[in-house]
Amino acid sequence: MNFREGLVAVLGLAFITAGCATTGASGVTPMMDGDLPEWVEELPEGTPPEENEYTDEVVLYLLQAQQFAEGDEGIEHFQSALDASLQGIEEYPENPQHYLQAGEAYLGLGDYVGADSMFTRAEEIYPRYVVETEFHREGAWIESYNLAIEASQAGNEDAALAHFEDAHTIYRLRPEAMINLAASYTENDRIDDAIDMYGQVAE
To answer: How many CB atoms lie within 10 A of CB 111?
Structure first.
């Protein structure tokens, strides 16, 4: 089986799930306190987020970025959001909201490694933030996964591989991108990487 044949099994899922994700500026919480599932409420409370001049500034930048998401102006707003978030981290290093917002800004800038790092730190400080970070992570996963499918259909396997890797970087609780990565690694004689990826699929 070649890599493109391997896509067939998950192709339909990509477009079915595409409409399920939305991306919101931090402060627009997909699930508010009181509506949390029991498993989230059982997590350690940690240090709850607090709003301040930096978090308020970032919310505005993120909202502006979404209005101009396709152009250079959107990138500028995402960069401004990131800059303000990093300033907030420097001044209030134990406020998890700064890390959450920095993660969103990194996503807007296409830096999935940076986003993963910031979301992880937000979860460490305030474990219950997982309800928001998972929302953003899976939304980014869906977007990257669909881009990978589109790239593969266009015959651009290098771009497809890069998008599958982005998807895997930001979210690891779905196996589809891993399966396709493992198949791609196998075709490119990256056997150790393929074995590792199949192991993660099994987990």
So the answer is: 18
